[in-house]
Specification:
It is a single chain. The chain has helices spanning 5-42, 45-70, 72-85, 89-127, 135-148, 152-167, 172-194, 205-228, 245-277, 281-317, 321-348, 350-354, 363-395, 399-424, 428-460. The chain is mainly alpha-helical. Helix 10 (281-317) runs antiparallel to helix 11 (321-348). The two termini are 44 Å apart.
Length: 471
């Protein structure tokens, strides 16, 4: 049954209230990593190669660590909804204590994941020398990894508190803190690389130290902001030693498939890039440029996905299955409208879009990039839809299902299709991107079908979601 226009507009405004600050925060985080890349590039090609290698390792482990605490927002949203709808002081107090316990468990899980990731980061930094990487690049990358490793713990603390604020539907401070961190990161990068002010001249490792310091300062700023918020402060309990083992085990059970999904997706796109690289430097340059454009626009889908996921958790906690079903349609409609505008720009002005990444003299790369933009105009619809689908399933606490579907869509459908269309049809890079589109489309359809089935089963079950007792 079609959604009335007035209802769609009302739902879109409600979704945008949470999605817009989250999407802007994601875009600001992209700017943060871009600053590091620019600063390393100024130091020369070898520094960029070494720093880029270190950042790839760090970002892979950071992304998976973030996945471990991502489900916290959904759990907090459901508990907060139960607190708001509680008809007695006792039930409200029980729901509030559930939120506090979730915060403690989230910070404990972030600490464990951060420490494990830091150790693994250093080990991988030594192991890449055995994977055919240039020895000088590996040696230059190691000090950067040593500097980045301690920053992983405050980075994941920040993400845990972030999920708490998002689950409580009060994410406004996130954007201000992330934007401020861009300026702080740029200043610290420059100062630590060149030894400006009273700081020592550290060269390339200064980028790693700057990044770690920025993560620590961002975490402290978000914590201080939450402490000043009268709604958040009473629930922000950082005494991780009081974490209930059952809560920690439950969050780890939800977070592990999300971390695996993020890792699987990153690995899929990495293999695709390797396949494109076999067609030459022009093809890889075009792929990198268009992929970065899609990645930037993708942050809008991330904001919509998180917002829809949180709201689904809330609606289901209140027993409102129809509203949860409508949220899917609203999120997809909003994503479709944005992607249609962006896709039109891709099609009408391809050279203008590619200009920030490719010089006008790189004719072959621009020609390939223009063809890829035509595919990207369609591909990004499915890319956004699959990300929203993962978020919707997270709202159902179905994180394992999302992981299983992405394995099928990315690796069993998308990768073989990319290889077949790229190698056997003579379409080269264009064929690989058509395979990429096929994989994302299959993933999106499978995820949304699973969500519909999950909602149908919820509709047959009792509508009330019992709140667990506080221990």
């Amino acid at each position: 049954m079609p959604i009335p226009i007035r209802t769609l507009l009302h739902d879109s405004r409600a979704l945008a209230t949470l999605a817009v600050p989250l999407a802007l925060t994601q875009l600001a985080q992209v700017a943060l990593t871009t600053t590091d890349t620019v600063m390393m590039g100024v130091m020369g090609a070898e520094a960029l190669a070494a720093g880029g290698l270190a950042m790839v390792i760090f970002n892979q482990l950071r992304t998976m660590g973030v996945g471990m605490v991502t489900a916290v927002g959904n759990q907090v949203a459901a508990a907060a909804a139960r607190a708001e709808s509680a008809d007695t002081e006792e039930s409200r107090a029980r729901a509030d204590e559930e939120v506090r316990d979730l915060v403690r468990a989230a910070l404990a899980l972030a600490t464990l994941a951060g420490l494990a990731g830091a150790v693994l980061m250093v080990l991988i930094g030594h192991a890449v020398a055995w994977l055919g990487q240039d020895a000088d690049v590996v040696d230059a990358a190691k000090p950067v990894l040593y500097a980045l490793a301690p920053g992983l713990v405050p980075c994941l603390w920040f993400q845990a508190i972030r999920q708490f604020t998002v689950g409580m539907r009060r994410p406004q401070a996130l954007l201000h803190i992330t934007v401020a961190s861009i300026a702080v990161n740029a200043a610290l990068n420059w100062a630590l690389i060149h030894g400006t002010w009273i700081l020592p001249e550290l060269g390339l490792p200064g980028v790693g130290i700057s990044t770690s310091l920025v993560y620590l300062l961002s975490c402290l700023a978000l914590y201080a902001s939450a402490r000043r918020d009268p709604q958040l402060s009473p629930l922000l309990d950082i005494r991780i030693w009081k974490t209930r083992k059952d809560t920690l085990r439950g969050l780890a059970g939800l977070g592990t498939p999300i971390a695996a999904t993020y890792g699987s997706e990153a690995g899929f796109f990495f293999v695709v890039a390797l396949m494109v690289g076999t067609f030459g430097s022009a093809a890889l340059a075009a792929h990198t440029a268009v992929n970065q454009l899609v990645y930037i626009v993708f942050q809008i889908a991330v904001g919509l996905s998180h917002a829809a996921s949180i709201n689904v958790s809330r609606e289901l906690a209140l027993g409102r299955t129809d509203e949860a079903r409508r949220l899917k349609n609203t999120a997809l409609a909003c994503a479709g409208a944005v992607m249609a505008v962006v896709g039109t720009v891709y099609v009408l002005t391809p050279e203008l879009v590619l200009r920030p990444f490719l010089s006008s003299s790189e004719h072959e790369a621009i020609s390939i990039g223009a063809d890829l933009l035509l595919i990207a105009a369609v591909l990004q619809f499915f890319d956004c839809a699959q990300n929203i689908g993962v978020g919707l399933l997270r709202g159902l606490d179905d994180t394992k299902g999302g992981f299983h579907v992405t394995l099928i869509g990315y690796w069993l459908i998308g990768l073989p299709a990319a290889w077949l269309l790229g190698r056997l049809t003579g379409l080269d890079t264009t064929g690989i991107w058509l395979g990429l589109l096929t994989g994302l489309a299959a993933t999106a359809l499978l995820l949304l079908r699973r969500y519909n089935r999950g909602l149908a089963s919820r509709g047959e079950a009792p509508s009330a979601v019992p709140a667990p007792t506080a221990g």
